[in-house]
Write a structure and sequence with these properties.
Rossmann fold, 10 helices
Protein backbone atom coordinates (compact mmCIF):
# COMPACT_ATOMS: atom_id res chain seq x y z
CA UNK A 1 0.00 0.00 0.00
CA UNK A 2 1.36 3.42 -0.97
CA UNK A 3 0.28 6.54 0.91
CA UNK A 4 1.45 10.15 0.68
CA UNK A 5 0.67 13.18 2.84
CA UNK A 6 -0.12 15.88 0.28
CA UNK A 7 -2.19 19.05 0.45
CA UNK A 8 -3.13 18.32 4.05
CA UNK A 9 -4.52 14.79 3.56
CA UNK A 10 -3.16 11.26 3.17
CA UNK A 11 -3.68 10.06 -0.39
CA UNK A 12 -3.71 6.40 -1.41
CA UNK A 13 -2.00 5.71 -4.71
CA UNK A 14 -0.34 2.98 -6.75
CA UNK A 15 2.88 3.64 -8.66
CA UNK A 16 3.97 0.86 -11.01
CA UNK A 17 6.14 0.40 -14.07
CA UNK A 18 9.67 1.61 -14.82
CA UNK A 19 10.75 4.76 -12.95
CA UNK A 20 12.05 6.22 -16.23
CA UNK A 21 8.87 5.41 -18.17
CA UNK A 22 6.52 8.10 -19.42
CA UNK A 23 4.22 8.78 -16.45
CA UNK A 24 0.45 8.42 -16.87
CA UNK A 25 -1.60 9.69 -13.92
CA UNK A 26 -5.13 8.26 -13.64
CA UNK A 27 -7.97 10.03 -11.80
CA UNK A 28 -11.15 8.03 -11.17
CA UNK A 29 -14.85 8.85 -11.33
CA UNK A 30 -17.37 9.77 -8.65
CA UNK A 31 -18.21 6.79 -6.43
CA UNK A 32 -15.28 4.60 -7.54
CA UNK A 33 -11.72 4.02 -6.40
CA UNK A 34 -8.64 3.53 -8.56
CA UNK A 35 -9.52 -0.11 -9.25
CA UNK A 36 -11.80 1.28 -11.96
CA UNK A 37 -8.69 1.30 -14.20
CA UNK A 38 -7.62 -2.32 -13.55
CA UNK A 39 -8.96 -3.80 -16.78
CA UNK A 40 -7.45 -1.05 -18.90
CA UNK A 41 -3.85 -1.45 -17.78
CA UNK A 42 -3.00 -4.63 -19.78
CA UNK A 43 -4.12 -2.86 -22.96
CA UNK A 44 -1.76 0.12 -22.66
CA UNK A 45 1.64 0.32 -24.38
CA UNK A 46 4.51 -1.30 -22.50
CA UNK A 47 7.11 0.69 -20.61
CA UNK A 48 4.82 3.32 -19.10
CA UNK A 49 4.94 4.44 -15.49
CA UNK A 50 1.37 4.09 -14.20
CA UNK A 51 0.18 6.19 -11.26
CA UNK A 52 -3.39 5.72 -10.03
CA UNK A 53 -4.77 7.47 -7.00
CA UNK A 54 -7.95 7.65 -4.95
CA UNK A 55 -9.21 11.20 -4.98
CA UNK A 56 -10.25 12.98 -1.77
CA UNK A 57 -13.01 11.15 0.07
CA UNK A 58 -12.77 7.97 -2.02
CA UNK A 59 -11.11 4.59 -1.63
CA UNK A 60 -8.42 4.63 1.05
CA UNK A 61 -7.68 8.35 0.75
CA UNK A 62 -8.67 10.49 3.72
CA UNK A 63 -12.19 11.86 3.75
CA UNK A 64 -12.55 15.38 5.12
CA UNK A 65 -16.03 16.75 5.72
CA UNK A 66 -18.00 17.99 2.72
CA UNK A 67 -18.17 20.22 0.77
CA UNK A 68 -15.08 20.18 -1.46
CA UNK A 69 -14.06 22.74 -4.08
CA UNK A 70 -12.80 21.67 -7.50
CA UNK A 71 -9.73 23.84 -6.87
CA UNK A 72 -8.91 21.65 -3.86
CA UNK A 73 -9.20 18.45 -5.91
CA UNK A 74 -6.91 20.00 -8.53
CA UNK A 75 -4.42 20.97 -5.81
CA UNK A 76 -4.49 17.39 -4.48
CA UNK A 77 -3.50 16.07 -7.91
CA UNK A 78 -0.79 18.70 -8.37
CA UNK A 79 0.61 17.96 -4.92
CA UNK A 80 0.79 14.22 -5.61
CA UNK A 81 2.58 14.85 -8.91
CA UNK A 82 5.06 17.08 -7.07
CA UNK A 83 5.50 14.53 -4.26
CA UNK A 84 6.40 11.85 -6.80
CA UNK A 85 8.74 14.30 -8.58
CA UNK A 86 7.22 13.40 -11.94
CA UNK A 87 8.27 15.01 -15.20
CA UNK A 88 5.40 16.44 -17.26
CA UNK A 89 2.86 13.61 -17.32
CA UNK A 90 -0.10 12.40 -19.32
CA UNK A 91 -3.20 12.91 -17.17
CA UNK A 92 -6.08 10.49 -17.74
CA UNK A 93 -9.32 11.58 -16.09
CA UNK A 94 -12.69 9.84 -15.97
CA UNK A 95 -15.83 11.90 -15.26
CA UNK A 96 -14.93 14.10 -12.26
CA UNK A 97 -11.36 12.95 -12.90
CA UNK A 98 -11.66 14.66 -16.28
CA UNK A 99 -12.79 17.86 -14.58
CA UNK A 100 -9.73 17.62 -12.33
CA UNK A 101 -7.60 17.21 -15.45
CA UNK A 102 -9.12 20.27 -17.12
CA UNK A 103 -8.53 22.30 -13.97
CA UNK A 104 -4.95 21.05 -13.72
CA UNK A 105 -4.25 21.88 -17.36
CA UNK A 106 -5.58 25.40 -16.82
CA UNK A 107 -3.90 26.14 -13.48
CA UNK A 108 -0.66 24.12 -13.74
CA UNK A 109 0.04 23.51 -17.45
CA UNK A 110 3.73 22.88 -16.75
CA UNK A 111 2.81 19.61 -15.01
CA UNK A 112 1.13 18.06 -18.05
CA UNK A 113 2.46 16.76 -21.35
CA UNK A 114 -0.91 15.59 -22.72
CA UNK A 115 -4.36 14.70 -21.45
CA UNK A 116 -7.02 12.03 -21.99
CA UNK A 117 -10.57 13.01 -21.01
CA UNK A 118 -12.98 10.09 -20.60
CA UNK A 119 -16.74 10.60 -20.32
CA UNK A 120 -16.53 14.11 -18.93
CA UNK A 121 -17.34 17.66 -19.94
CA UNK A 122 -16.35 21.26 -19.31
CA UNK A 123 -19.53 21.51 -17.24
CA UNK A 124 -21.45 18.46 -16.07
CA UNK A 125 -25.12 18.95 -15.27
CA UNK A 126 -26.88 21.93 -13.73
CA UNK A 127 -26.73 23.27 -10.19
CA UNK A 128 -30.30 22.06 -9.67
CA UNK A 129 -29.38 18.53 -10.73
CA UNK A 130 -26.53 18.35 -8.22
CA UNK A 131 -28.53 20.03 -5.47
CA UNK A 132 -31.25 17.40 -5.96
CA UNK A 133 -28.71 14.59 -5.78
CA UNK A 134 -27.17 16.06 -2.64
CA UNK A 135 -30.63 16.33 -1.07
CA UNK A 136 -31.49 12.72 -2.01
CA UNK A 137 -28.27 11.43 -0.41
CA UNK A 138 -28.81 13.50 2.71
CA UNK A 139 -32.27 11.92 3.03
CA UNK A 140 -31.51 8.30 2.16
CA UNK A 141 -27.79 7.80 1.66
CA UNK A 142 -26.07 6.72 -1.56
CA UNK A 143 -28.23 3.58 -1.61
CA UNK A 144 -31.24 5.80 -2.37
CA UNK A 145 -29.87 6.55 -5.84
CA UNK A 146 -27.71 3.49 -6.55
CA UNK A 147 -29.96 2.00 -9.26
CA UNK A 148 -30.10 5.32 -11.08
CA UNK A 149 -26.33 5.63 -10.97
CA UNK A 150 -25.62 2.06 -12.09
CA UNK A 151 -27.99 2.43 -15.04
CA UNK A 152 -25.90 5.38 -16.19
CA UNK A 153 -22.56 3.73 -15.54
CA UNK A 154 -23.23 0.55 -17.51
CA UNK A 155 -25.06 -0.59 -20.62
CA UNK A 156 -28.16 -2.73 -20.29
CA UNK A 157 -26.18 -5.65 -21.70
CA UNK A 158 -23.60 -5.38 -18.91
CA UNK A 159 -26.25 -5.09 -16.23
CA UNK A 160 -28.13 -8.19 -17.42
CA UNK A 161 -25.25 -10.51 -18.37
CA UNK A 162 -22.56 -9.62 -15.81
CA UNK A 163 -24.59 -9.42 -12.64
CA UNK A 164 -21.91 -10.81 -10.32
CA UNK A 165 -19.51 -8.12 -11.48
CA UNK A 166 -22.28 -5.52 -11.27
CA UNK A 167 -22.72 -6.45 -7.61
CA UNK A 168 -19.08 -5.56 -7.00
CA UNK A 169 -19.50 -2.12 -8.54
CA UNK A 170 -22.65 -1.61 -6.49
CA UNK A 171 -20.69 -2.40 -3.33
CA UNK A 172 -17.90 -0.02 -4.32
CA UNK A 173 -20.40 2.77 -4.93
CA UNK A 174 -22.39 2.25 -1.74
CA UNK A 175 -19.28 1.93 0.43
CA UNK A 176 -17.99 5.31 -0.70
CA UNK A 177 -18.00 7.60 2.36
CA UNK A 178 -20.98 9.94 2.17
CA UNK A 179 -18.82 12.98 2.92
CA UNK A 180 -16.52 11.98 0.07
CA UNK A 181 -19.36 11.48 -2.38
CA UNK A 182 -21.19 14.63 -1.31
CA UNK A 183 -18.00 16.67 -1.20
CA UNK A 184 -17.29 15.79 -4.83
CA UNK A 185 -20.91 16.50 -5.82
CA UNK A 186 -20.44 20.06 -4.60
CA UNK A 187 -17.17 20.30 -6.55
CA UNK A 188 -18.81 19.10 -9.78
CA UNK A 189 -21.80 21.39 -9.26
CA UNK A 190 -19.59 24.47 -9.13
CA UNK A 191 -17.02 23.50 -11.77
CA UNK A 192 -17.13 25.16 -15.18
CA UNK A 193 -14.17 25.05 -17.59
CA UNK A 194 -15.95 26.40 -20.67
CA UNK A 195 -13.90 29.61 -20.51
CA UNK A 196 -10.50 28.01 -19.88
CA UNK A 197 -10.69 24.97 -22.20
CA UNK A 198 -10.28 27.06 -25.41
CA UNK A 199 -6.98 28.35 -24.01
CA UNK A 200 -5.41 24.90 -23.59
CA UNK A 201 -2.43 24.13 -25.80
CA UNK A 202 -1.52 20.52 -25.03
CA UNK A 203 -2.51 17.39 -27.00
CA UNK A 204 -5.90 16.12 -25.81
CA UNK A 205 -7.86 12.93 -26.56
CA UNK A 206 -11.55 12.99 -25.63
CA UNK A 207 -13.63 9.80 -25.53
CA UNK A 208 -17.21 8.91 -24.64
CA UNK A 209 -19.10 5.68 -24.17
CA UNK A 210 -21.83 5.37 -26.79
CA UNK A 211 -24.47 4.63 -24.12
CA UNK A 212 -23.21 6.92 -21.37
CA UNK A 213 -26.19 8.11 -19.34
CA UNK A 214 -24.21 10.58 -17.21
CA UNK A 215 -22.21 12.49 -19.81
CA UNK A 216 -23.78 11.61 -23.19
CA UNK A 217 -21.52 11.63 -26.27
CA UNK A 218 -23.02 14.88 -27.58
CA UNK A 219 -22.07 16.68 -24.37
CA UNK A 220 -18.57 15.21 -24.39
CA UNK A 221 -18.14 16.18 -28.04
CA UNK A 222 -19.08 19.77 -27.21
CA UNK A 223 -16.19 19.84 -24.76
CA UNK A 224 -13.81 18.37 -27.34
CA UNK A 225 -14.83 21.15 -29.72
CA UNK A 226 -13.77 23.75 -27.15
CA UNK A 227 -10.19 22.46 -26.93
CA UNK A 228 -7.93 23.41 -29.85
CA UNK A 229 -6.82 20.32 -31.78
CA UNK A 230 -8.57 17.81 -29.50
CA UNK A 231 -9.51 14.42 -30.98
CA UNK A 232 -12.91 12.93 -30.18
CA UNK A 233 -13.98 9.27 -30.33
CA UNK A 234 -17.10 7.34 -29.33
CA UNK A 235 -16.59 3.85 -27.88
CA UNK A 236 -19.35 1.45 -28.84
CA UNK A 237 -20.81 -0.93 -26.29
CA UNK A 238 -19.88 1.22 -23.30
CA UNK A 239 -21.66 3.40 -20.78
CA UNK A 240 -20.02 5.89 -18.44
CA UNK A 241 -17.08 3.61 -17.61
CA UNK A 242 -15.53 2.42 -20.90
CA UNK A 243 -12.40 1.39 -18.99
CA UNK A 244 -14.58 -1.34 -17.43
CA UNK A 245 -16.81 -2.37 -20.34
CA UNK A 246 -14.47 -1.81 -23.31
CA UNK A 247 -10.92 -1.64 -21.93
CA UNK A 248 -9.31 -2.99 -25.12
CA UNK A 249 -10.93 -0.30 -27.27
CA UNK A 250 -9.99 2.47 -24.85
CA UNK A 251 -6.45 1.14 -24.53
CA UNK A 252 -6.06 1.12 -28.32
CA UNK A 253 -7.22 4.75 -28.55
CA UNK A 254 -4.83 5.84 -25.81
CA UNK A 255 -1.95 3.93 -27.38
CA UNK A 256 -2.56 5.49 -30.80
CA UNK A 257 -2.82 8.94 -29.21
CA UNK A 258 0.49 8.53 -27.37
CA UNK A 259 2.26 7.29 -30.50
CA UNK A 260 0.82 9.99 -32.77
CA UNK A 261 2.11 12.67 -30.41
CA UNK A 262 5.57 11.14 -30.05
CA UNK A 263 5.06 10.32 -26.38
CA UNK A 264 5.87 6.61 -26.76
Amino acid sequence: MQMAKVNGIRVHYADSGPRDGVPLVFSNSLGTDFRVWDRLLPHLPEGLRIIRYDKRGHGLTECPAAPYAMETLVEDAAALIAHLELPPCVFVGLSIGGLIGQGLAAARPELLRAMVLCDTAARIGSADLWDNRIEAINRGGIAAIEEQILSRWFTESFRTTRQDELAGWRHMLCRTPEDGYLGCCYAIRDADFRASDPKLSLPVLVVAGEEDGSTPPALVEETAALIPGARFHVIKGAGHLPCVEQPEALGALIGDFLRENGIV
